[in-house]
Amino acid sequence: MLGNPNRQRYIYQQLPFVTMAKIVMVIGSPRKNSNSEIIADKIAEGAKANGYEIVKYKINDLAKARGCQGCGACKKAGVCAQNDDIKPMLEDIKASAGVILATPEYFGQPTAQFRIAQDRMFSFVDGTFTPFFPAGKKCAVVVTCGTGFDGAKAMADQIEGVMAGFFKFQPLGKVVVKDAMAPGCVAENKGVMDEALAIGKKF
Ligand SMILES: Cc1cc2nc3c(=O)[nH]c(=O)nc-3n(C[C@H](O)[C@H](O)[C@H](O)COP(=O)(O)O)c2cc1C
Question: How far apart are CA 138 and CA 165, in angstroms?
Answer without folding.
Answer: 13
